[in-house]
């Protein structure tokens, strides 16, 4: 009987070690944010984000270093957007308020992908109406394209002969941390609560 118990003990130990191996398989133990990530990014987080140069609501040229001075939620859209952009940016603003209640200061950032119509004043008013701390950015077509490419976003304007033309664009929100860069993205169907919870996890792990 003693031998049988010994065999069973070895079996249980092996099963436990196998379970731990499966649970940790593919996990990067060097990633300080591993417990917070909910999405897989082709090429890793370092493949998204990077330097940009845009124009703020005051008409000043600013860089990513000027803008991302604290954890930031970045969204690419346009002020003439009839539904998606206002809803997404309002949700981001709600998440920012939730985070502030928890003691986490996060900056909401809105980058226009419609520089022909979105002047610094227009994008500034749009941002201010959604949140008092939201930063609105625009720029030349070249500056906007560079920022979009850095974050791998998509946008394409429809027929511009119509002054009310629409712009097709991706709708991700990007979480960017000072000193770390891009760490996570959120989709349209993610709630303000989910964004706030995940963002807080990343901030706590900094």
From TrEMBL:
InterPro entries from the UniProt entry: SCO1/SenC (IPR003782), Thioredoxin-like_sf (IPR036249)
Highest taxon listed in the record's lineage: Bacteria
Similarity comment: Belongs to the SCO1/2 family.
Protein name listed in UniProt: SCO family protein
């Amino acid at each position: 009987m003693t031998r049988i118990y010994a065999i069973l003990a070895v079996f249980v130990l092996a099963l436990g070690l196998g379970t731990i191996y499966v649970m940790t398989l593919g996990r990067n133990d060097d990633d300080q944010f591993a417990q917070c990530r909910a999405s897989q990014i082709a090429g890793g987080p370092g493949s998204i984000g990077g330097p940009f140069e845009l124009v703020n609501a005051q008409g000043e040229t600013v860089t990513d270093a000027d803008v991302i001075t604290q954890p930031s939620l970045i969204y690419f859209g346009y002020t003439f957007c009839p539904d998606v952009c206002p809803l997404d940016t309002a949700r981001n603003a709600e998440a920012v308020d939730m985070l502030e209640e928890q003691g986490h200061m996060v900056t909401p950032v809105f980058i226009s992908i419609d520089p022909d119509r979105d002047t610094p004043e227009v994008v500034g008013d749009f941002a201010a109406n959604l949140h008092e701390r939201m930063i609105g950015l625009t720029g030349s077509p070249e500056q906007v394209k560079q920022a979009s490419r850095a974050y791998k976003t998509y946008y394409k304007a429809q027929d511009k002969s119509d002054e009310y033309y629409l712009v097709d664009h991706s709708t991700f929100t990007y979480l960017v941390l000072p000193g770390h860069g891009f760490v996570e993205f959120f989709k349209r169907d993610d709630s303000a609560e989910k964004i706030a919870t995940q963002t807080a996890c990343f901030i706590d792990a900094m």
